[in-house]
């Protein structure tokens, strides 16, 4: 009985590791930007995300309950978040546009291919997400 329990625990741990490796590998494929937001204590939190370009703006795809999204929507033009894309650093704030999720999902699928499909399979359909247009502030490009 103990051996069966040990094998069961080993199987669960092994499957968990495989799941985490697949999520990490898929989510780090392609272009990844860094979003720097502030938490409730004012400490900076960096989140790595996929980005797409659409209608002359940069876009992120969010789950409305995710921490990074909750922090991002608290930023505004007077207190922007920071987005690092390649060697560029931008001051941004978010404008959620849920009606654009279909177009953004297609852009993400085209850009990230297999990685997008793996994340959707393991994390759930992106159709319930929200499209987030990033608006650049007046001092948007810092470098």
Query: What is the name of the CATH architecture?
Result: Roll
How many helices does DSSP assign? 3
Please identify the top-level CATH class.
Mainly Beta
The rough form would be described as: globular
Strand order of the largest sheet: 2-1-5-6-7-4-3
Largest sheet: 7 strands, antiparallel
How many beta-strand runs? 7
Give structural notes.
The protein has one domain (2-141): Pnp Oxidase, Chain A. Helix content is 38%, strand content 33%. The protein contains 3 helices and 7 strands. Strands 2-1-5-6-7-4-3 form a 7-stranded antiparallel β-sheet. Helix 1 (2-27) runs antiparallel to helix 3 (101-123). It is globular.
State the main characteristics:
143 residues; alpha+beta; Pnp Oxidase, Chain A; seven-stranded antiparallel β-sheet
List strands and helices in order, with pairings.
Elements: H1 2-27, E1 33-38, E2 44-49, E3 52-54, E4 57-62, H2 67-72, E5 81-85, E6 88-96, H3 101-123, E7 130-141
Antiparallel strand pairs: 1-2, 1-5, 3-4, 4-7, 5-6, 6-7
Helix pairs in contact: 1-3
How would you sum up this structure in a few lines?
The protein has 143 residues and is α+β, with helices and mostly antiparallel strands. Helix content is 38%, strand content 33%.
């Amino acid at each position: 009985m103990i051996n069966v329990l040990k094998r069961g625990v080993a199987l669960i741990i092994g499957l968990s590791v495989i799941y985490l490796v697949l999520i990490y590998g898929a989510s780090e494929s392609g272009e990844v930007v860094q979003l720097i937001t502030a938490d409730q204590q004012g400490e900076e939190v960096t989140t790595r995300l996929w980005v797409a370009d659409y209608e002359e703006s940069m876009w992120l795809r969010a789950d409305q309950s995710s921490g990074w999204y909750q922090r991002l929507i608290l930023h505004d033009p007077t207190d922007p978040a920071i987005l690092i894309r390649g060697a560029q650093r931008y001051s941004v704030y978010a404008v959620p546009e849920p009606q654009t999720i279909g177009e953004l999902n297609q852009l993400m699928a085209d850009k990230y291919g297999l990685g997008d499909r793996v994340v959707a399979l393991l994390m759930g359909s992106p159709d319930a997400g929200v499209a987030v247009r990033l608006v650049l502030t007046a001092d948007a490009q810092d470098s």
